[in-house]
Amino acid sequence: MRKILFVLLIVIAVVVAGAAVFVALRQNLTFDPPYPDVTASSDSSVVARGRYIVRDVAPCAACHGDPAQRAAFNEGADVPLSGGYAFVIPPGTFYTRNLTSDGETGMGSVSDGAIARALRYGVGYDGRALLPFMEMQGLSDEDLRAVVSYLRTQPPVRNPVPAHRFTLIGRVVKATALANPVGPAEPLSDRSPRGASVENGRYLAESVALCWACHTQRNQMTGALVGPRNGGATGFLEPDDPGHSWSPPNITSDPETGRLGRMSEDAFVARFRAGRLIPGSPMPWQAFARMTEEDLRAIYRYLMTVPPAKNDVGPPVVNLEQS
Ligand code: HEC
Ligand code: HEC
After folding, report:
1. Is CATH 1.10.760 what the domain over 36-166 is classified as, yes or no?
2. How many other CB atoms are there within 10 angstroms of residue 60's CB atom?
3. Is residue 164 within 8 Å of 92, Cβ to Cβ?
4. Ligand 2 pocket mutation, candidates 212, 214, 260, 299, criterion most atoms within 8 A of CB
5. Residue 240's pLDDT is what?
6. Does 289 have pLDDT greater than 80?
7. Which of 144, 178, 277, 289 has its CA 20 to 30 A from that of 120?
8. CB of 26 within 8 A of CB of 174?
9. Average pLDDT, the chain
10. Nearest to residue 300, comparing CAs of 209, 236, 235?
């Protein structure tokens, strides 16, 4: 009996040590996907399209905007994309990077191709698999070029951003579930769709505005989608607002529990034009309110084609201090 116990202990020790070595060895994996053939342009229509994507549809400033100017951002100002916002989540504390053209702390010395590759293949300048915060792998070549072109027009802001800090469990997740970068799921087009079509709506909702990224229940540790797509989510926390838990509603066309089941296309457009109605809502309403009418209609038409999900996530915001 003792002998069996002893052997069992040795086996457990070996497994634990093996797992620790495995995790440690996989902390600094690097990858080398191709650099997209994208170079910045100073053509004013290209820069204007980039501005629209960066400021109104994607909106990069929701995460990369100067955290000290959050109130101005929520009012609609074009705040500097100088980074430093901290996501404090179970796998660790992660800081958004400085996207301005500062040579030392921003992207001044990063090539156009490396910026484009980060968005398309989820691989950083240094070859690391990026954390899955920017699921915009489906951006067309046209829009990648527009985004890079607009970013290049941003004045430099010196702002050194701290390195990420992984928790123990975060290191395990990094070595396993998030070890490999995520590239595009399907072949990409050179040009972006336009107009009030389902195709354009699908492109904007899935690959640019990432509506599903907030409106789908996720695993808090890995970010994996665990609920019906666009079927709503609960427990959405904002690090700088610990008093509230948000529940992005079900935005499918389910007649009972889906917002779009009870909202006409015109009402949807009007709702977006109205901007943020619930103070503090993390949805970047002020940015989306500037989207073109065609694009808003396109998004509605696309969302009406996704499978309706029966899922009620309750009120949009819960006050944690009262409960
Ligand atoms: C939901 C939040 C979020 C949004 C929206 C977002 N980012 Fe990021 N971004 C991050 C985080 C977090 C990191 C750090 C990721 C890492 O280091 O693993 C990052 C890193 C980057 C990097 C640096 C890659 C590197 O090698 O360090 C670039 C470039 C970038 N983002 C560009 C953009 C652009 C352009 C947009 C808009 C089109 C955008 N991001 C929108 C959160 C976001
Ligand atoms: C950063 C997370 C986030 C993103 C991205 C996001 N939403 Fe939301 N959304 C929320 C939250 C939280 C709420 C609930 C609070 C509120 O109504 O402002 C909400 C509410 C809504 C509502 C209900 C509004 C009402 O008054 O009934 C609709 C419709 C909606 N979102 C559609 C969308 C669409 C379409 C997109 C993509 C273009 C999108 N959302 C992107 C977080 C997000």
Report:
1. yes
2. 21
3. yes
4. 214
5. 80
6. yes
7. 289
8. yes
9. 94
10. 209
